[in-house]
Amino acid sequence: MLLPILLLSAAGFTVLTTEFVIVGLLPAVARDLDVTVSQAGLLVTLFAFTVAAFGPFLTAYFSRFERKRLFISILVLFGFSNLLAALAP
């Protein structure tokens, strides 16, 4: 019983860390995109707004799928997306 809880905790920590790490990288993102830091900060706001707007609808839609398989699929997609982002030029 302890292993599933540890894995779930590690997955939650990883996802939240990935979502909030952008705040510390805003100056670099602004420099790369040739915009101001405040304009780059709007990316964080846009992400938060998108999650708030679509979260309830997606939760209702995905409630019809088996949770364990859905969670594992989303984590694999999340990991693959982060790998692509890490390898991007």
From TrEMBL:
Keyword Electron transport found: no
Residue intervals passing through the bilayer: 41-63, 70-88
Molecular-function GO term, any one: transmembrane transporter activity
N-terminal signal peptide: none
Keywords for this protein: Cell membrane, Membrane, Transmembrane, Transmembrane helix
InterPro entries named among the record's database cross-references: MFS (IPR011701), MFS_dom (IPR020846), MFS_Efflux_Transporters (IPR050189), MFS_trans_sf (IPR036259)
UniProt cross-references to Gene3D superfamilies, sorted A to Z: MFS general substrate transporter like domains (1.20.1250.20)
Subcellular location: Cell membrane
Gene Ontology terms: cellular component: plasma membrane
Topology relative to the membrane: Multi-pass membrane protein
All residue ranges annotated as the Major facilitator superfamily (MFS) profile domain in the record: 4-89
Protein name, per record: Major facilitator family transporter
Source organism: Pseudomonas savastanoi pv. glycinea str. race 4
